[in-house]
Amino acid sequence: MAAVMGYSFGMAGVTGIILCARQFMNSLADSSLEEIKRAIEDQPFLAEYYDVGDRYIKSKDGRIEFAFAGLDRSIDSIKSKGRILICWVDEAEPVTAEAWSTLIPTLREEGSDWNAELWVTWNPKRKKAACEQRFRFANDTLIKMVELNWRDNPKFPEKLERERQRDLENRPEQYDHIWEGAYVSVVEGAYYAASILKAREQRRIGRFAPDPLLKYRAFVDIGGTGARADAFAMWIMQFVGREIRALDYYEAVGQPLASHVAWMNHRGYTPKNCDVWLPHDGETNDRVHDTSYESALKHAGYSVTVVPNQGKGAAKARIEASRRHFPAVTFNCPPDVHLTSEGWYEQPTTEAGLEALGWYHEKKDEERNVGLGPEHDWSSHCSDAFGLMAVAADLIFAEMKQVATDPFRAFRRSA
Fold this sequence. Notes:
Layout: H1 2-11, E1 16-22, H2 33-41, H3 44-49, E2 50-52, E3 57-59, E4 64-70, H4 71-78, E5 84-89, H5 97-103, E6 117-120, H6 130-136, H7 158-170, H8 172-180, H9 193-201, E7 205-206, E8 216-221, E9 231-240, E10 243-253, H10 257-267, E11 274-278, H11 293-299, E12 303-306, H12 314-325, E13 329-332, H13 351-359, E14 362-365, E15 370-374, H14 380-405
Parallel strand pairs: 1-4, 1-5, 5-6, 7-13, 8-11, 10-13, 11-12
Antiparallel strand pairs: 2-3, 8-9, 9-10, 14-15
């Protein structure tokens, strides 16, 4: 289509550049060059109009030239390119918000009956991706969205149909993302892939309300203060009989504890109805604010429990405990919940937490095919907070059982 539009511009006497960009492009081999070449070769009128070389495409009349750029390395050089008629950003899912803010103002050309256009194509992966927020969820009449899938291709190859059927049968947890345009719910090799798939099948992911008579429990993986600090992650849960009801999820980077407490109070998780569970380093003082999370939260009025360090193999212990308790967990994840201007979801939801759990996977040495333990990435903090809940669950269930068999135990004085 880019070649067709270039032809239309050229035949109308318009001169300019068709810019083809991707976030990552180390060489022309990573670009859309070959794809455009094949499109030109398939249409005789395009093949007649363009001069196609090994490393370039330009019109024979000298009016239209194709350029290729990687936004991660060449974004500043794009600003100096003159007369961009169309910018096509392919595989746009990883393009950053900063890159969009730099790129879009460069598309300033216009004529009597046309203006420069931005074309964006991507396979949905994460709801929070910059392209999703800027384009898919934008309330802008100038943005035209078209969803295309395998079933929209009248020439869908039989080979791909066999691959589709194979994925449907053998990789059902990834099928919707690969073939139906859904966001990634689990990645290949994710620790909780089978557990999340089972939860969906059993309809344990949906809209679940809190029990107003039961306390909330906040399970935390603490971060730090500063732009480069680890994320602060928190699951809000209730233990309802033998059910673990995951009701809400919160994550922030580089914010002080006061911001996290503000979110809790805004949501209604106050010291009167919510207890906080911290990992062992909850007793350690923050590097910027010389106080521990434990003492600060107690000062705010919360009841705080610090879970002891599980020692060597703690990460694996959290994963195994999570797998063991996963069948008892229901996830409050209502459809169509949007982010507010503060970056919070407008109502309680575990959507972002489920996304992280589905991504949490093992780091591998590909050459030796050896597992190296959990990959430390954006999903780790959420998963560690969930694992903290799983480790603490046995203690909580035991406490609940004691209260059920002796409801007046808390009122008795010890001998």
